[in-house]
Design brief:
Layout lengths: L1 H15 L29 E30 L7 E34 L5 E11 L2 E11 L9 E3 L4 E10 L1 H6 L3 H9 L2
Parallel strand pairs: 1-5
Antiparallel strand pairs: 1-2, 2-3, 3-4, 4-6
Length: 192
Amino acid sequence: MRSFGVCFWFGFLLLAGVPAMAESLYQENSYRPLAGDNKAFRVGDVVTVQVLENSSATTNADTTTRRKNGINADLSLTRNPTITGGINIGGDFDGGGRTQRASRLLAQLTVAVTEILPNGDLRIAGEQALLVNGEQQSVKLEGRVRPLDISDGNVVVSSRLSEAKITYVGEGDLSDRQRRSWWRGVVDWLGF
């Protein structure tokens, strides 16, 4: 019985020297009040971006150059008939070109908050991949958004993004047919 009492007091003294450790159920970095909104505000939260981008560009160029050079020579000899010679060089160039491009991208994708900047802005990034008629379509989005620009429904329009990088890429037979062949580039480089 005595050994039990010694062990008990020894264990009690040993535990008395160790401070008590407890964790709180409240975590400040992830707490959201019940009456708070559902906007993204920390790293890992998601926000929906409505991509509404329209762009158009038109370029016209007209070039006209004319050049004419002429050299004439006359030579007369007393015993031989008159020798006359001439060289005329001329060149004309008319060139023109027109480039017109219009694009429109409508998409909606949900991206994640990757960083909170010192001023409170959120850096967001994400990608959406679709398979349409056997062709892989991919939309990648990166940007910076102010929390003020995120709606109550946790949605932001792409025109409100700063430093936005939106990439829309398609891969498949149709996309391959729209690319110029390598030999066409060589012919254009040679000027044919």
